[in-house]
């Protein structure tokens, strides 16, 4: 299952708070339809029925079912090179 670093947890919490996402909402990750292997991120008020829910503290990440398989052994982290707001990267789990 996808895991989150402390930095990713803090970034997701900050993003959802700033955007006014209601309690129970979070960041949703889904594979991009136009480009296989790319992912789309969206702040949403709740997961879809079949989403995998990853919780870390107050942060919630919802992963689309087929994307959940692709991300099963990865960790979501923040990208220190991001210049405009938080960027995210996926790395293999240790």
Description:
- This is Iron-sulfur cluster biosynthesis.
- It comes from Oerskovia enterophila.
- The protein is α/β, with parallel strands linked by helices and 94 residues long.
- It has one domain (3-92): HesB-like domain (Hypothetical Protein Aq_1857, Chain: A, Sandwich).
- 21% of the residues lie in helices and 36% in strands.
- The protein has helices at 6-19, 65-70; strands at residues 3-4, 26-31, 39-44, 52-56, 59-63, 74-78, 88-92.
- It has a four-stranded mixed β-sheet with strand order 3-2-5-4.
- It is globular.
Question: What's the gist of this structure?
Answer:
The protein contains 2 helices and 7 strands, in the order βαββββαββ. With about 90 residues, the protein is of the alpha/beta class. The protein has one domain: HesB-like domain (Hypothetical Protein Aq_1857, Chain: A).
List the helices and strands and how they pair.
Elements (H helix, E strand, L loop, with lengths): L2 E2 L1 H14 L6 E6 L7 E6 L7 E5 L2 E5 L1 H6 L3 E5 L9 E5 L2
Parallel strand pairs: 1-6, 2-5
Antiparallel strand pairs: 2-3, 4-5, 6-7
């Amino acid at each position: 299952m996808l895991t989150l670093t402390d930095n990713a947890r803090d970034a997701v919490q900050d993003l959802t708070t700033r955007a006014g996402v209601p309690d129970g909402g979070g960041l949703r990750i889904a594979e991009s339809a136009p480009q296989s292997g790319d992912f789309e991120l969206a702040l949403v008020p709740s997961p879809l029925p079949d989403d995998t829910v990853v919780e870390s503290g107050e942060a919630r990440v919802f992963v689309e079912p087929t994307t959940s398989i692709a991300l099963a052994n990865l960790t979501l982290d923040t990208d220190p090179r991001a210049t405009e707001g938080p960027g995210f990267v996926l790395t293999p789990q240790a």
